[in-house]
Structures are given as C-alpha cells and as structure tokens.
Amino acid sequence: MNVQIEHQKAINDAYQRQIETLRTEKTSLQSNISFFGCGKCLTHWIFYNSSCYFFSYLESHKVKKNWPDSRADCVSRGADLVVIDNQEEQKFVSHTIENMKGGPNMWEDAFWVGLTDSKAEGTWVWINNVTEVEQRYWRDGEPNNSGHKGEDCGAVLPSSSNPWKTRNDSPCEFKIHWTCEMPSK
C-alpha cells in the first residue's frame, strides 16, 4: 500500500512539473505573439498578450476627456476602458504611459482606466464588476478622496521610480488621456 502511495505521489509530482513547464511555455508563446505582431489591432492600437490597447495620446496628445466621455469613446471604438487584472498588464500599461510623458505636471500625463468607487465610497470596482483588491498598485497615500468632493474615478500616472504604484483616485470630471482595451482580432 505504501509503495502504491509513493508511486502516486511521484506521478502527481511529475504532472505538477509538466503543468509548470506548460505555463512557462504559454507565457513565452504569448510574448512571441506580441513580439512578432501576430495579433490584429486597429491603427493607433497596441497589441499585447492577446488584447489591443488604445492610448488616446497616440492619436492626439492634445485631446483629453473626463472619465464618462473617455469610457463612451472606448465603447464607440468597440472596446471599454482598460481593466488591469494581472502584474504583466500593470507593468505593460505603466511602461507604455511612462514613454508618453512630457507634460509639466503629473496630471498632464495621466490616463483614465476602468476603475471607480462611484457606487460605494472606498470600494473600488473595475468596469467588469471585479472588486479591486490589489492595494499595492495605488500610489502612496492613495486612494484618499483628498481635497475634492468625490474622487470616484481611477487613473494611472507615470512613475519612473516604481511601475507598480501608478493608480490614483481623481474627480471623474478631470480631463485627461484614456486607455481602452479589447480582444485582438
């Protein structure tokens, strides 16, 4: 009986190693797809990890919108505001906006994302109805609803010192750039 248990454990361990190998291979293949541009995205959109991203700055660095109008613009393009749901996507968005900065203050380089606490103050929810649980991505001291009557919309700001701490709460009526996301074709 002990021999059979040990044999089953060995089989299980082998399967676990295979799963990890396949996960690593999947990540590598997804990176290669992105590198070779196999995904099909519209003009002014960037392919990354099976999705297409629109950074409004690339179309016009002068046009800025409030959060509701930014979301409406994304929807009119067949997309929605970006939902950042993993570390790789956080790093991709952070690095992409970092390369677009150039304004005199941080809000000149900010981008709306699909994150809001408009339904319940302090409960941040992505537009796909997933509650934000990753506090580590917020800038130090954020979200804070500070100095304004309602900072209910989420934005990302460039941070050359820390690409993990880029999220900030902001009044939804601020006019800044925005980021849309949709599946690639």
UniProtKB/TrEMBL annotation:
Coiled coil: 5-32
Bias-annotated ranges (Basic and acidic residues): 141-152
Recorded superkingdom: Eukaryota
Keywords tagged on the record: Coiled coil, Lectin
Positions of the UniProt region annotated as Disordered: 141-166
Protein name as it appears in the record: C-type lectin domain-containing protein
One Pfam family from the record: Lectin_C
InterPro entries reported for this sequence: C-type_lectin-like, C-type_lectin-like/link_sf, C-type_lectin/snaclec_domain, CD209-like_CTLD, CTDL_fold
Location of the C-type lectin domain: 48-181
Entry-linked SMART domains: CLECT
PROSITE patterns: C_TYPE_LECTIN_2
Molecular function terms, GO-annotated: carbohydrate binding
Organism: Mastacembelus armatus
